[in-house]
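Standup notes, protein team

Yesterday: finished cleaning the Aquimarina algicola set.
Today: YigZ family protein structure.
Blockers: none.

Input for YigZ family protein:
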Amino acid sequence: MDILDTYKTIKSSGKEVLFKDRNSKFYGYAFPIKTEEDVKNIISELKKQHHTARHHCYAWQIGTENKRYRSNDDGEPSNSAGQPIFGQIQSFEITNVLVVIVRYFGGVKLGVGGLINAYRTSAAMAIEASEIIEKTINKDFVIIFEYKDMNKVMRIIKDYDLKIIKQELELSCKIYISVRKKFVDKIKDVFSSLYEIKIKELEN
């Protein structure tokens, strides 16, 4: 059975997009994020940038296997802004992303249907203005060993092209590595079979 170990996200913040409907302006943005703290910081900056705008609506999704998400209507009628934005995040099948739509009211009410269309369209435009990339889901491990076993450990790391995150090379050594999910069992077996070398999975 193939292990699904890739996900899609955006490479960097996309350029600002603008959608207009009956004098209302909807400015759309997409940002790569890792934490809810990132969300707070970005929203705070956009509120400074667009301090006269009436609504700063958004949706975000974080995580690969255990996804977390939230949407916010920021004063618009319930489910007329945040949910349509989140729907586009799902439609593009991306994660670790925040999409924000800033609305300047143009004096004409759009109705719930008009709002849903405007926020959905702006969100799609913001995501399309970003470069979508595919990444692998990785697990992090620490390998614990004596200095004399350094060559053995480094040979395995080289043979399997493992990514080293950091190293603590003293009398007792620790090397932190990142392993693509589908190779995890194999790598654990290889290191576990070696005498005096321990491998431990880290909480991501």
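Follow-up from PR in the comments: The first strand starts at residue 6 and ends at 10.
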